[in-house]
Automatic annotation (TrEMBL):
SUPFAM superfamilies, per the entry: Bet v1-like
Stretch forming the signal peptide: none
Superkingdom field: Bacteria
Protein name per its UniProtKB record: SRPBCC family protein
Residue span, Coenzyme Q-binding protein COQ10 START domain: 11-126
Transmembrane segments: none
Pfam families, per database record: Polyketide_cyc
Entry's family note: Belongs to the ribosome association toxin RatA family.
Length: 130
């Protein structure tokens, strides 16, 4: 299952956006309002939970400065959250998040809506806090 957030434009250089997303503590500022738990578990890993959903641990798996950062699930489920950062001008960049996961059709149907809304919220919140 592959999902894409809308692209957002930020008044920041790709390196500034990359640096922000590379610090896992900053993801707390991007989380939706219905977050029930957020905990940093190390320099490259954090745990979060949304109301009514199980806890999810994300770990930084790959980073290609200043254009791409990959967070992967550090649990039973296999999925990645990928931040794509593209320079559009001086101190301007476009950011898009993609979610890639391998789920059975029933699970994919159940999580497609909530995950789509989640990554859309993360990217929209970037326009406010990055």
């Amino acid at each position: 299952m592959n999902l894409e957030s809308p692209k957002v434009s930020l008044e920041k250089s790709p390196q500034e956006v990359f640096d922000f997303l590379s610090d896992v503590k900053n993801f707390e500022q991007l989380m939706p309002d219905n977050i029930s738990k957020f905990e940093v578990l190390g320099d490259d890993k954090f745990l979060f939970a949304l109301k009514g959903m199980p806890e999810i641990v994300l770990k930084k798996k790959e980073s290609i400065a200043p254009n791409k950062i990959v967070l992967g699930a550090a649990g039973k489920l296999d999925f990645s959250l990928i931040g794509h950062i593209q320079e559009t001008g001086t101190n301007q960049s476009d950011v898009q998040l993609t979610f890639e996961g391998d789920f059975n059709p029933m699970m994919a149907m159940m999580i497609k809506g909530p995950i789509s809304k989640f990554i859309e919220t993360l990217v929209k919140n970037m326009t406010k806090v990055v």
